[in-house]
Every structure is written in structure tokens, then in C-alpha cells.
Amino acid sequence: MVGSIKNPHSVVDDRKQELKLAFESIKVLLRRCGYESKVINFPANHRERSIDLIAVKDDIRLLIRVKVGTKGISRDETADLIKAASAIDALPIVLNNEATYEDVVSEREGIYVMCSKTLNNILKGTNDVFILERRGELLVRINSRKLESYRLARGLSLGDLALLSGVSRRMIFEYLRNDSNVTLNVAEKLIEILDEDIVEPINMETLKTLFNKAPSDITDPEVNELLGILNVNDSHIYKINKSAPDYILRRVDYQPNVGFIINGRNMTKTPFKFIVRKVLETDKLTSIISSDITVILRDDAKKPLVDELSTYNLNTNKVSIIGCK
Q: What span, in angstroms and rounded, lies between the C-alpha atoms of 224 and 259?
């Protein structure tokens, strides 16, 4: 029995290798599907971060967290993903090959969990992904236009369709107004009644319409103090705990409308070298979406930071440094 126990160091090495392969596979997939992507390596320890990749194609933006093994996603990771996605108009996605079934998207606490094959099929538009799992219930999306067309073609009133399907007349009316998520049982009944397929595959546009954005952290006293330093009005701000930027600003009447904020005022909590790392990793975000960076730190640290950043291949036009006491 003793000989069968795996060395803890070996387990860690295996996990690192599994993560490395997962990242390489995802980057290749995104590139093949026309997405530009960047890996965000902050914090350095993968377990301590909430966002691993950002990917962009046209008006679709993805924020991706990569997980291996059966361990779930923490509340902090979930909160960061939802807030960051709300701020930059992206979809929060967790990739875990052991957490869900192939061709099933699981909505958990507002984020979308799927395996890499499911993501592959959605990005490539194979029309193989139909099922959304939410709170243990399996749902599919029905096309309202097809439902109305086939209903009229068969001479069925709303009352007829409601009676035959076992669904209320009010719900049938809602199904006809907008594309809707319904249980597999309801979808099967409607398909049987109409003798036509009315189910739509899941794509990124579908998930965008379903995503509920998080409210701004504007009521947080620390956030209000920060907005005062920035002299910003009419903006939404989101506090991020486990990634390179500390806050993300969604501006209403200003371009670029996304701003990343790094709060370095407490250099005991955030040492100078961490501030530099944060700026460099946040710069990856600005390279892929229209945005800028604001660093807030002590007056005496402003010049050293400017000097340090000048040694890197960094677009300093996108970086503002505000000194404060």
C-alpha cells in the first residue's frame, strides 16, 4: 500500500503539466477560430488568480478561467469573473474537462462552465451544443419565429398549443415573443405537436443575451475614495481581488470606455515589484481591447515607477500615474 502512494511533488508536477497542456490547447483553439488572446499571469501562483485568458474576436470578448481536477471555482473567482466581464462587456467562462459533460454548458452562479470540446464546438459553430444546465435542470433554447410560423401553419391558436403542450397560455405567449429557454420535456412536446425542430444551438451571442451583469461597486467607501482621487463621474467601477488590475472602470461618456486601475498606495500590502508586474500584465489587456491604465501610488514612488516601466516594451501613452500622499 505504501508503495502505491504518489509523491506530493509528483502530483504538483503532474498538475502543472496538465495546466500547461490545457493552456496550449486553448490558445491553439482560439487562434484557429479567429480569436486574439492573451494570458494574464498575475498572481504568479495559478491557484490565487481568477482570470487566465482574455480572447477577442469582433464584438465577442471572452474572459476565461482554466481549472484542472474536480475542485470547483471559489466565490472570489466567480465574483471577479462576473465583475470583470460586466466591466468590459465579455462572457465569463470556466474551462474544466472534469466538471461537466460534453456539449453541455453549465451556468453556475452566473458564469458558464464547460469542457474544452464544448467550447471548441461553440466557437466553430458545429451546432452540436444545445443543452444549458442551470440549477440541476436541463434547458434548451427554442426559436420564437419558428414556433410562431409552425403554429400558424398548423392552424393552432395559443390556447390550442397551451392545452396540447401542458404549458400555460401566458408562457406560450412569452415563447412567441422572444427566444426562450425551456425544459427538455416542454421542448419535446412542442416538437411532437408541430412535427418540426424549433430548438436552436447555443452560441456566444446566445450566452451574451443570457449573461446578467453585476452591479457596480459604487457603494463601497474605498471605491468612492478612489473615484474622488480620479475625479471621475458617471462611471461604473468594479473591484477585482485576484487579478492584475485592482479595479475596472466602465466609463459612460469618455473614450476609451474601459479603464484599468492599479492601487499601489499601500506599498506594504502591494510591494513595488508587484505594482510593476501588475502594470505589465494589465498592459496585455490594453493591447487587446480599447482601454487605458491608471496607477495610483505614493508621490515618492511615482518617478521610480516611471523609470522602471521605461525599461520594458510598454505603450506608456496608455499608462497614467497619479501620485498621492
A: 16
